[in-house]
Design goal:
This protein is an alpha/beta fold and 473 residues long. The protein folds into four domains: 21-146, 3-Layer(aba) Sandwich (Rossmann fold); 166-334, 3-Layer(aba) Sandwich (Rossmann fold), CATH 3.40.50.300; 337-410, Orthogonal Bundle (Helicase, Ruva Protein, domain 3); 425-468, Arc Repressor Mutant, subunit A. It has helices at residues 29-41, 52-65, 83-93, 108-116, 129-160, 170-182, 199-208, 227-235, 251-255, 271-283, 309-314, 320-326, 343-358, 367-375, 381-395, 407-410, 425-439, 444-451, 455-468; strands at residues 21-25, 45-49, 71-75, 99-104, 121-125, 189-192, 217-221, 260-264, 285-286, 295-296, 300-305, 329-332, 364-365, 399-400. Strands 2-1-3-4-5 form a five-stranded parallel beta sheet, with helices on both faces. Strand 3 (71-75), helix 3 (83-93) and strand 4 (99-104) form a beta-alpha-beta unit. The two termini are 39 Å apart.
Length: 473
C-alpha cells in the first residue's frame, strides 16, 4: 500500500542508546562548568555537584531510582565532605562503582590514600582534556565489564556450581560466554591453555552446566601414565589380562557413565591409545583390555592441551580424525600475563580462601605488592600466583609486603610510567605481531613462520584480540 507524501503517520523509532552517567563533584564553579561541557561532548550524561555532600545525595537518589552512575569523578579537597569521605560512603552503597579523583600536585599523598580505599585512578591538575576523558571512559568501561562479569559469574555459579573461575578481563569473559553456550549442547569440547591457567576448572564448568551435572566428573592426565596403564585406566581390564591384573577393573569410561570424562594433556596420548579412543567415540562402546565383549557407554568427553593440537594433527603427530572429533567446540583460556586486570581480583580471592582454610584474618595487600604482582610475567599462571600468595601468608604479617613474595616475583622489574602508561607484555606481543604482519604485507602464513609459531596459533591470537577490543561508548 502506498503512503501519501505528507502523511502524518509516525515512523517507528529505535529506542535511544543510554549515555553513560558520570557523577562529577567539584567546588570550583568555573572548572565544574568546563568539565561538564567536556564530558557532555564526549558522550556522557553528567550529574554535577558543588561538594561531596551534594554528590552523595545525588548518588543515593540515583541508587533509589535504579539508575546508579557508571562512574564518579570528584575533587579530593571539597567543603562539607571531601573526596576521601565521599569514596567511603559511595563504596558502602555500591562497592563496584569506579571513582576517579582530581587533585593538585600538593595532594598526591591523598590520592594514594584514595587508591588504597579502592579508587580507580586519579588525575593531577592541571590536566589534559583528552587524558581526563580517556580516564573516565576507562572507568566506565571497567564498570561495564564488572557488570557483565558479575552476571556471567552468577550464571556460572548457578549452572555449573563453580566459584573458582575468577576474573573480569575481556579474554576471560569470552571464555565464560562460550562455556555458557557450549555446556548444554553435549558436544565435545577441546580446551587450550598453558599449564596452570585453570583448564580443569573450565572443564568442570562445562560439566556442571550440562544435563549431566548430576552425574560423575572424572579426570585423567594422559601425560602422567605410560601407554599400557593409560589404556587400562580408560577402558578397564579383565582379571589376568596382564601381569599384576589380579582383579578386573571397569575403567574410567564406565565409571563416568552418565557424566563427563576430562582428558587432560590429550596431546601427549600415544598413537595406539588415540586409535582406541577414536573407536570408542565413534561406536560409544568400550572393550576392556583382555576382554572379548564390547560394553555400551554414555559419556561426554572434554579434553585439554597446552599445545597446538591442530598443528600436531597436520604434522602427523596426532590423529587428524580424532582431533576433529574432540574439537567440536574449542575454548582458549588466556594466560595470566594476557589478563593483568585479573591479578588483583585473583589475589584477593586466594587470600580470602586461605584465611578461611587457616582460620585466620584475611591478609591485606600493600600497593607495592600489587604493583609487583602485576609486573611479574607468571609463567606458571594462576597456579603460580596461588602458590606465591600462600608463601606470603605463611611468612608475612597482617599486610603483605614485597619481601614476603618469592624471590622471582620480588625481582620483577616495575617500569616507570612513560607518557602516562606502561606497556604490558600482551601489548608488546601485539605490537611485535602487528609489525611482522606489516613487514609481510598481511601474509599471515609468512608472518607465522617469521614469528616461529604455528599458523593456527597466530589465527587464535588475532581472533581473541579482535573479540577483546572494547568498543567506544
Amino acid at each position: 500500500m502506498s503512503r501519501r507524501k505528507n502523511a502524518t503517520i509516525p515512523e517507528a523509532e529505535e529506542p535511544p542508546v543510554r549515555r553513560p552517567t558520570v557523577l562529577f563533584a567539584e567546588d570550583d564553579v568555573a572548572l565544574r562548568g568546563i568539565v561538564e561541557v567536556l564530558l557532555d561532548e564526549a558522550g556522557f550524561e553528567v550529574l554535577a555537584a558543588a561538594d561531596g555532600a551534594e554528590a552523595l545525595a545525588l548518588f543515593r537518589g540515583r541508587l533509589e531510582d535504579g539508575s546508579t552512575p557508571d562512574a564518579v569523578l570528584a575533587d579530593i579537597n571539597m567543603p562539607n565532605m571531601d573526596g576521601l569521605e565521599l569514596i567511603d560512603e559511595v563504596k558502602v552503597l555500591d562497592p563496584h562503582v569506579p571513582v576517579v579523583f582530581v587533585t593538585a600536585y600538593s595532594s598526591v599523598d591523598s590520592a594514594i590514600t584514595a587508591l588504597r580505599k579502592g579508587a580507580f585512578d586519579y588525575i593531577t591538575k592541571p590536566f589534559r582534556n583528552d587524558h581526563l576523558v580517556r580516564t573516565v571512559r576507562n572507568a566506565v568501561q571497567q564498570r561495564r565489564l564488572t557488570t557483565e562479569n558479575a552476571s556471567l559469574r552468577a550464571a556460572v555459579r548457578r549452572a555449573y556450581g563453580s566459584e573458582e573461575v575468577v576474573g573480569r578481563s575481556p579474554g576471560l569473559l569470552s571464555v565464560f560466554s562460550l562455556v555458557e553456550k557450549a555446556a548444554p549442547t553435549g558436544a565435545s569440547v577441546l580446551i587450550y591453555g598453558e599449564t596452570g591457567t585453570g583448564k580443569e576448572l573450565v572443564a568442570r564448568a562445562v560439566h556442571f552446566g550440562s544435563r549431566r551435572a548430576e552425574g560423575p566428573f572424572l579426570s585423567v592426565n594422559c601425560a602422567a601414565l605410560p601407554e599400557g596403564l593409560l589404556e587400562s585406566e580408560l577402558f578397564g581390564h579383565e582379571k589376568g589380562a596382564f601381569t599384576g591384573a589380579v582383579a578386573s577393573s571397569k575403567g574410567l569410561f564406565r565409571a563416568a557413565e552418565g557424566g563427563t570424562l576430562f582428558l587432560d594433556e590429550i596431546g601427549e596420548m600415544v598413537p595406539a591409545v588415540q586409535a582406541k579412543l577414536l573407536r570408542v567415540l565413534e561406536s560409544r562402546e568400550v572393550r576392556p583390555v583382555g576382554g572379548t565383549a564390547s560394553i555400551r557407554v554414555d559419556v561426554r568427553i572434554v579434553a585439554a592441551t597446552h599445545c597446538d593440537l591442530y598443528a600436531a594433527s597436520q604434522e602427523g603427530k596426532f590423529r587428524e580424525d580424532l582431533f576433529y572429533r574432540l574439537a567440536v567446540i574449542e575454548v582458549d583460556v588466556p594466560p595470566l600475563r594476557d589478563r593483568p586486570e585479573d591479578i588483583s581480583l585473583l589475589a584477593r580471592h586466594f587470600l580470602a580462601r586461605l584465611a578461611l582454610e587457616r582460620g585466620e584474618p584475611e591478609r591485606r595487600l600493600s600497593p607495592e605488592v600489587l604493583e609487583r604482582l602485576r609486573a611479574y610475567a607468571w609463567p606458571g599462571n594462576v597456579r603460580e600466583l596461588m602458590n606465591c600468595l600462600e608463601r606470603a601468608v605463611i611468612v608475612g604479617g597482617e599486610t603483605l609486603a614485597v619481601e614476603d613474595l618469592g624471590p622471582r616475583v620480588q625481582d620483577a622489574s616495575v617500569s616507570a610510567p612513560a607518557s602516562g602508561a606502561t606497556l604490558t607484555l600482551l601489548d608488546r606481543e601485539r605490537e611485535h605481531i602487528r609489525e611482522v604482519l606489516g613487514q609481510t604485507g598481511g601474509d599471515r602464513k609468512q608472518a607465522a613462520q617469521l614469528l616461529g609459531i604455528d599458523l593456527s596459533t597466530l589465527y587464535r591470537k588475532l581472533k581473541r584480540w579482535e573479540s577483546e577490543s572494547p568498543s567506544e561508548d
